[in-house]
Amino acid sequence: MGKRDFVYIFIISELIFVCLAFIYLNLEKATLESKFLFNFFSFLRKIKIFFVLPVAIPFFAYVGVFVGFLFSKKIKSFFEFVKFFLVGVLNTVLDLGILNFLVLVSGFTSGFYYSLFKSISFLIAASNSYFWNKVWVFESKEKNVKKESAKFLLISIGGLIINVGIASLIVVFGKNFLNVSSRILGNFGAIGAVLGSMFWNFFGYKFFVFKKSLKNE
Fold first, then answer.
1. Which residues of 162-183 are buried (b: 16+ CB within 10 A; e: fewer)?
2. DSSP letter string over 88-129?
3. Which one, 7, 66, 117, 152, has least CB within 10 Å?
């Protein structure tokens, strides 16, 4: 691990904290609709979560990546996998954070505007994913950025269809099966979308977008 790794881990960790803050502020509005959420958020306030997370997130991120670095001496790609996982966590909370921010300021939690907000949050998270996977995770040396970006865009469009489709279906049909508020259901939709598109993104990045750089390693 080098100095660059430590700087990147710190930046990613603090971005995760900011996104979690937006998720917290939006879901806090739903505490009156759920006894569980009311008790959960009361607990978070008692432990002063906003003072704990800025320290706890970087700490666990550093420990996790360092462990990955140590294991990479036996399993070459393990360090790369751990970095990919950390970037994946950032992408997930960035997606959720932007979605919750848009819901928070607009008040729209379903329908056309939810799908629009989900598309916006996904595209921003996808752009973030490209940057970190290229610069840090796979350390791509591809000089033809336009070609690489075009490949990434192609994978992202497929991921967008899968992501928004799953999220919207969960929100639309979840009302009939889950007795939760629309704010909570919206986050269930976002989480389901992330899980659904995760494998598409991973294999697309590894075997299509960054294939050349992986061969050269």
1. bbbebbbebbeebeeeeebbbb
2. HHHHHHHHHHHHHHHHHHH---SHHHHHHHHHHHHHHHHHHH
3. 7
Q: What is the mean pLDDT of residues 138-149?
A: 83
Confidence at residue 212, expressed as pLDDT on a 0 to 100 scale = 57
> Domain span at residue 200?
3-216
Helices 111-132, 78-106: crossing angle, 10 deg rounding: 150
Looking at the predicted structure, is the pLDDT value of residue 213 above 60? no
d(CA 6, CA 1): 8
pTM (2 d.p.): 0.76
Give the span between the Cα atoms of 179 and 88, in whole angstroms: 29
Q: Based on the number of CB atoms within 10 Å of its own CB, is 7 exposed (0-12), middle (13-18) or buried (19 or more)?
A: exposed
Question: What is the count of structural domains for the chain?
Answer: 1
Tokens of 77: 């790609």
Give the chain's end-to-end CA distance (angstroms, integer).
17
Contact (CB, 8 A) for 103 and 125: no
